Amino acid sequence: MPQPADLIEIEKGVYQHWAMYVGAGYVIHLTTGGRSSLSGNGNKGLVRKEKLGDVVGNHTYHVNNILDHKFRVRPIRLILQEAEKRVNREMFYDVFMANCEHFVTELRYGEPRSRQAVGAMALADPVLTSAAVLAVSTAVVAEAPLLVLVAGGAAAVKGLFWLKRKIENN
């Protein structure tokens, strides 16, 4: 049975959803409410307090205080107060920089971290490189019309690689 301020990792197939157990069968978590969260364009998430069973549904979960070995756990009373203050608040959501795992690790440790985001960036490397090559190839065939798009795409790819390095170094 989870204890207050425990991090709950919920297996959702290809990704994990994270929540903070706050007691009496409830968790607080950052959710996108079904909206896409894969773009880096500043999607909004909503902090919700719900029954653990409702959030888990037919998936499995386990307590995973993932960074207890690396960071000091903040005082539980403070963690729970801050979590409760954020309920029903809209927050920035980005799969790479501000996802549900970042949200709960920031509450527990004061440090927003996400192994999932680092993993997603690692998987994105070959995909982004292929997309950039395809964009350049398309621009060469079509000539000038796509050059502006390619320049923007190359800048976006470069920005994602910079972000990946920054996350890995933390």
Automatic annotation (TrEMBL):
GO terms for cellular component: cytoplasm. Residues 7-116 form the LRAT domain. GO terms for molecular function: N-acyltransferase activity; phospholipase A1 activity; phospholipase A2 activity. Keywords: Hydrolase, Lipid metabolism, Transferase. Belongs to the H-rev107 family. PANTHER family: HRAS-LIKE SUPPRESSOR - RELATED, PHOSPHOLIPASE A AND ACYLTRANSFERASE 3. This is LRAT domain-containing protein. It comes from Denticeps clupeoides.
